[in-house]
Design a protein that fits this description.
Elements (H helix, E strand, L loop, with lengths): L1 H24 L16 H6 L2 E18 L3 E15 H5 L4 E12 L2 H6 L13 E13 L4 E8 L23 H6 L11 E9 L4 E9 L10 H4 L12 E13 L4 E22 L14 E20 L7 E10 L7 E12 L9 E11 L1 H14 L8 E14 L2 E11 L18 E13 L1
Antiparallel strand pairs: 1-2, 1-16, 2-3, 3-4, 4-5, 5-6, 6-7, 7-8, 8-9, 9-10, 10-11, 11-12, 12-13, 13-14, 14-15, 15-16
Length: 451
């Protein structure tokens, strides 16, 4: 199924290229009657069906206390994208083409200095230039149904809140439980996967989402998944699939009709997952008489919910003010490092008449180490006779302020407190291998330039 989908996307790309070539042969795009703007301007191109975007995120982040070691890094990501209205360009009614690529550079603070599971930045990734998304979406039934086919991510629509975009911690984008438990982190930055997504507006209040994705963005191997799919061109379609679905219900609260949304759903992965405690022989992975190879468990799944609400308006009729969100998810303990996850936060917007587009946010995450993984730590204590640390949870507190210096240029100082990095795992620098990684404090600044 996914192989045929990729073939369709390839055919459409060829069609778009041919149409663009014909347009160039016919001469430049002409503005509509009475227009005075440059026919090569972004507005004229958008009228003709072509939209282009460039976003650069640069971050200077420092681990000032705890973690594996203190230090600072700079990391950045350039996102170049295009969206083409195929109805305007090629006469294909209700169809849209989208593609974007990343150029990622710099070091990672979590990877090199803190050692935590939920990366302090969603931008953090191995340096690379890679294709990210490449898809076509077809709208049907009066735009009530949208079918998207091609390489795509899941974090924009699934298990998402409209109020979490300000936060920079990776788990406050794509939830920590899915980013940690799924192969290659699931379809989220910096790795998207081929798939098919169907979105259906069942009523004015209820929207259903269902997607079938390839179950792993990278080929099998022991290297980092970003190395195994170094340029985003693997287009894997033969791995065991991953299903995800959700229902989103919108409603209003109180006399002010404050908007709220309740989302519930689940996911199901049809691949094999390593046992968190037992080897293929049925012995503890800590048992020196065993092979140390985790037993294979078939299938994996998770349930999740999202609640978000505008608590108060900055002004009557405004969509700005104080907003709240909360997300929760659970997965089986025997095949997952994280068995329960919870996050939530508050977003403040529109609180200053002189700075109407500034935002302030405070949020926290909690990822519980599964019982099987914790029992493995107890086994290590038994077999080694040492007070090996027992992992329990990783928690993050983030406080951030996003200031609009001018349209298209944002500056965002950020603070994070990382409790029990890697769940309270042993510090790799401790010669006795009995001490945990210390809680860490991160300070930094993110800048966002949008064109």
């Amino acid at each position: 199924m996914l192989s045929r989908a990729i073939a369709v996307v390839t055919a459409v790309i060829c069609l778009v290229v041919a149409e663009i070539a014909q347009a160039e042969d016919a001469g430049p795009v002409r503005p509509s009657a009475g227009a005075a703007r440059d026919p090569n301007s972004r507005e004229a191109l958008a009228d003709a069906g072509f939209q282009f975007s460039a976003i650069y995120i640069g971050e200077a982040l420092a681990n000032v206390s705890g973690g594996i070691r203190t230090g600072a890094i700079y990391t950045g990501r350039l996102d170049l994208g295009t969206t083409i209205d195929l109805e305007k360009v090629a006469g294909w009614t209700g169809a849209t083409f989208h593609a974007n690529m990343f150029q990622i550079h710099g070091d990672g603070l979590s990877r090199s200095y803190i050692g935590n599971l939920m990366l302090v930045s969603g931008v953090e990734a191995l340096p690379a230039t890679r294709l990210y998304e490449l898809w076509i979406e077809q709208k049907l039934a009066g735009d009530k149904i949208a079918v998207r086919v091609g390489q795509q991510a899941s974090d924009i629509e699934f298990i998402d809140s409209a109020y979490d975009d300000i936060f920079i911690n990776s788990a406050l984008g794509w939830p920590g439980i899915t980013g940690i438990n799924l192969p290659s982190g699931g379809p989220s930055p910096p790795l998207a996967v081929p798939g098919i997504r169907v979105k259906a507006e069942l009523s004015d209040r209820i929207t259903a989402y269902l997607a079938l994705f390839d179950g792993d963005a990278a080929r099998p191997g022991t290297e980092d998944s970003q190395i195994r799919n170094s340029n985003g061109l693997s287009f894997r379609v033969n791995d065991p699939p991953w299903w995800i679905g959700q229902l989103k219900y919108k409603f209003e609260i109180g006399e002010s009709s404050l908007p709220a949304t309740l989302t519930g759903g689940g996911w199901y992965h049809m691949g094999s997952f390593g046992d968190q405690r037992f080897s293929v022989e049925g012995l503890s992975l800590a048992d020196p008489d065993g092979s140390g190879i985790p037993g294979a468990l078939r299938r994996n799944q998770g349930l999740f919910m999202v609640y978000e609400q505008l608590l108060s308006r900055a002004a009557p009729g405004s969509d700005k003010g104080i907003a709240f969100f909360m997300r929760a998810s659970v997965s089986p303990s025997d095949r997952n490092l994280i068995s329960a996850y919870l996050d939530g936060g508050l977003l403040f917007t529109g609180f200053s008449a002189s700075r109407p587009n500034d935002k302030f946010g405070i949020a926290a995450t909690y990822a519980r180490i599964s019982d099987s993984a914790r029992q493995l730590d107890r086994d290590v204590q038994i077999f080694t006779g040492t007070p090996y640390p027992l992992r329990d949870y990783e928690g993050i507190l983030e406080v951030t302020y996003q200031a609009e210096i001018k349209p298209g240029f944002l500056v965002q100082p950020v603070f994070q407190y990382i409790a029990h990095p890697a769940g309270g795992a042993v510090d790799p620098n401790d010669p006795t291998q009995t001490k945990r990684i210390k809680d860490a404090v991160m300070l930094g600044v993110r800048t966002i330039v949008t064109y």
